[in-house]
């Protein structure tokens, strides 16, 4: 069997938001029993059928790079992470729906990965204002995922989801909210599964195809 083509997707967000649990769920459709802190970076692989059910269907490897979530401002910390940002094809931004700061920090994470040679400075979010120009030229597909939905009381969910909905708009990305301890949130045919598949298709198209659908030269 010929080796499958692959794409590299970063999974970014603060420590404790559930990135490792999310990656395990995405790659194995199982709940991670004993999640631990990620040191450096952990890589897992998901098999994805591009344009499933169409004549263009093709199978790819999706490499999910779970980057350790320390948000320390030390230059050494950022320099260590920068090596993981090379040749990225897509980014999944993960935040904890019960932790407002983890949502705000997604701007820092995305800026750090997309502009790895320029250390982010200053406050990116002030009183709800967002500087769109910082990401205006971004060509890397993004997906925003909110975790720990189960920990929000039903009476508070609308309020919380309304508060975080602007993230998807700011990043020009689709949004998925879920509980990583319950695989039904990504069940086949669900709206979340469709959004996820659409995101991976977009990543593959950006990596391997021109906008008119013609294949481009591939690189390692």
TrEMBL record:
GO terms for molecular function: GTP binding. Keywords: GTP-binding, Nucleotide-binding. It comes from the Eukaryota. InterPro entries: P-loop_NTPase (IPR027417), Sigma_54_int_dom_ATP-bd_1 (IPR025662). CDD domains: RabL3. PANTHER family: DRAB5-RELATED. Belongs to the small GTPase superfamily. Rab family. Required for KRAS signaling regulation and modulation of cell proliferation. Regulator of KRAS prenylation, and probably prenylation of other small GTPases. Required for lymphocyte development and function. Not required for myeloid cell development. This is Rab-like protein 3. The lineage of its organism: Eukaryota, Metazoa, Chordata, Craniata, Vertebrata.
